[in-house]
Design goal:
heterodimer, A: about 130 residues, alpha+beta, 5-stranded antiparallel sheet, about 25% helix, globular, B: about 375 residues, alpha/beta, Rossmann fold, two-stranded antiparallel ribbon, 9 helices
Chain lengths: ~130, ~375
């Protein structure tokens, strides 16, 4: 029984550390939140180490160093363009929300990309 | 600080040389008095006496044991300057669009959910946007209170409580599209994304035809460091809260990028507007949240629009002021209140550069 518990904990640890997003040079670890409802959601939820809840849909935001890079990305990666948000910054879409984090992290590594991250959903706190 | 000081000296030098900033043609010399004339129409506002955050009414201050300097020292400036010609965008959770205190000032509106112009509050107790708006924009109409920038045009932008980064950017883009000079934010996520930060920085640096849109954020009410929050962005004016004792309110967030503090209340609330009639949460007057209401408006949410309103008056006085000049003037004119010592740059992490003082701001504007 103890062995089983250790395996579960180890699996959760590994799984948790697979989930991250990039903020500049930093990798921010996030832990998936289990959705106990039986409805199909278009958003997966995660929590960062400060307790912030982050929603991840099938969309991501990518900022390029120059406008010419967009076409290269569209040709070489399985993403489609949704809209231009502002200068050289685009809202892109992947086919499945499960790919959003890994696609954002992959694009973030590219030299022509300033930053890439999921189009996070976040709670606004009134003050 | 040295950078700030050098920038400030450059501003003074440019002004002395009749340079591009500010334009002397837009400036009207004014006489500033420490108190309102007895005939001032502002005194006809029934609840002005309890707007302790703006003005000292001796009897009210004595009765409520309010520190003599707890207000922002408006003197008679609200009579002469009302934010005319300045556009203030307010991003919040919904608004009473028909409130008689400010409905005539609404220039534009946009709801990010419905993509329509209807920004009415969703639930009757969603009062936050209405309360913020009254502080900035309530008319001098003899009905209740005076807003700091009572003639400013307001742009009402309704957010969703759980909202994506792209939707947040859409709201800031709308503010830009509607010609906002100032964007007032009494909210935060505690965790701003790179793209949202980039949009805010871009507007603060390049908006308003290159002069920079002045973006104000409340620092938050958790008595915690605001690192990583929207209010922690260097190009944003980050505002903490003070109480009736003219000290930092115990809930007010702090940090290395806190700019200034302004009244947010603690034991006494900030008298402002509440959704009219049966909507809203007010218990003493259906259309107003009074200072002593059981659900009085308290927080850095109240302090931030006070600063936004003050900036509207500054920009009316001199529309050519850049965002960084506004910031420098706020820093250099704020009162060094409170106990924590201020460093050689004139700031600390709990009060920023201190509490804003409108008379000092206008004296600086006038003398430059």
């Amino acid at each position: 029984m103890k062995f089983f518990v250790y395996i579960v904990l180890l699996t959760q640890f590994i799984y948790a550390n697979e989930s991250y997003y990039c903020y500049g040079d930093k990798k921010i670890s996030i832990v998936p939140l289990i959705d106990k409802s039986r409805s199909v959601s278009v958003v997966d939820y995660y929590q960062d180490e400060n307790g912030h809840v982050l929603g991840v849909s099938d969309k991501l935001i990518v900022a390029f160093k120059d406008s010419a890079s967009l076409q290269t990305i569209l040709e070489n990666y399985k993403v489609t363009i949704v809209s231009e948000l502002f200068t050289n910054t685009y809202l892109l879409k992947v086919s499945n929300k499960k790919e959003t984090l890994s696609m954002a992290n992959t694009l973030n590594e590219l030299s022509e990309v300033l930053y890439a991250h999921p189009d996070f959903l976040k709670k606004r706190f009134k003050r | 600080m040295y950078t700030s000081l050098i920038s400030f000296l450059i501003v003074i030098f440019l002004n002395a040389c009749g340079g591009s900033s500010p334009s002397s043609s837009s400036i009207n010399p004014i006489e500033i008095n420490a108190s309102l004339d007895n005939n001032s129409s502002i005194l006809n506002e029934p609840y002005f006496v309890q707007q302790w955050y703006l003005y000292k009414n001796q009897a009210f201050y004595t009765r409520n044991r309010i520190n003599t300097d707890a207000n922002i020292h408006t003197g008679d400036i609200l009579e002469s300057y009302k934010g005319r010609g300045i556009r203030v965008a307010i991003i919040d959770n919904g608004f009473d669009m028909n409130h008689t205190e400010y409905k005539l000032n609404i220039a534009n509106s946009f709801d990010v959910l419905s993509k329509s112009t209807d920004v009415s509050h969703t639930k009757s107790n969603d009062i936050h946007g209405t309360a913020v708006t009254g502080i900035i924009s309530a008319d001098i109409n003899g009905e209740g209170i005076v807003g700091i920038a009572s003639d400013a045009n307001i742009i009402l932008l309704k957010y969703k409580e759980f909202m994506s980064d792209s939707e947040t950017i859409e709201l800031f883009s709308k503010a830009q599209e509607f010609g906002a000079d100032i964007i007032s934010n009494s909210w935060g996520t505690g965790n701003v994304s790179p793209a949202v930060k980039a949009k805010i920085v871009d507007l603060a640096k390049n908006g308003r035809n290159g002069k920079g849109i002045v973006i104000v954020f409340a620092s938050g009410n958790d008595n915690a460091d605001n690192s990583g929050d929207e209010s922690d962005i260097d190009e944003v004016i980050s505002v903490g809260a003070t109480d009736r004792e003219n000290l930092r309110a115990l809930y007010s967030n702090f940090g290395t990028r806190l700019d200034v503090v302004a009244p947010g209340g603690y034991n006494h609330g900030i008298t402002t507007t509440d959704p009219s009639g049966s909507d809203g949460i007010a218990s003493l007057d259906t259309d107003y949240l009074l200072y002593n209401d059981a659900k009085a408006f308290i927080g850095t949410s109240a302090a931030a629009p006070i600063v936004s309103g003050v900036i509207a008056l500054m920009l009316q006085y001199n529309p050519n002021l850049t965002r960084s000049e506004v910031e420098i003037i706020l820093h250099n004119t704020s009162d060094k209140i409170g106990n924590p010592p201020y460093d050689v740059n004139g700031r600390n992490n709990y009060y920023g550069y201190g509490k804003i003082n409108l008379i000092k701001i206008f004296n600086t504007l006038k003398n430059n």
